[in-house]
Amino acid sequence: MTHDQAWEHLNRYVKNEKMIYHSLSSEAVLRALARRLGRDEEKWGLAGLLHDIDVEVTDADPLSHALKAEELLAEFNLDEDILDAIRMHNEMATGKPRSNEFQFALAAGETITGLIYATALVYPDKKIALVKPKSIVKRMKEKAFAASVSRENILECEKLGLSLQEFAEISLDAMKGIGEDIGL
Question: 53-90 b/e with 16+ CB inside 10 Å = b?
Fold first, then answer.
């Protein structure tokens, strides 16, 4: 599957602008993580871009979200590890714990995008350019801030051998690189 095919297919199923921004942010973070860890940037980027392709189809139902994605992507014959990472970013639907690097990267990477986005929105100009990694780490400790963001998922960065500080830096830099594309 090419990036253009993935983008077109995502837009067929996802109409909410904020979800499109989330998908683009997740792609950028996963690509940055792949570069940092010496993994396949295209493969990890596709997983980031497509991981929520079924979110509107399933109405974000925690028991079916991520499982329906496999059906929506079947015609493209994606590598099994991409599909596996997409399925496993929502452990609740699979009933199994995440167990490998790609799974941890997607779960942590797509989750931190929400925390970064929320942090940028509390700045006066609501622009990501001014956000610092230490602000992300600070907001991690504030449970009431972006309360729906799973801190446990974000901390799976440690299973990749990355400290929270380093993970925040990588993720923030990735999102800064596409700030205009994601409304920040």
Answer: bbbebbeeeeebbbbbbeebbeeeebeebbbbbbbbbb
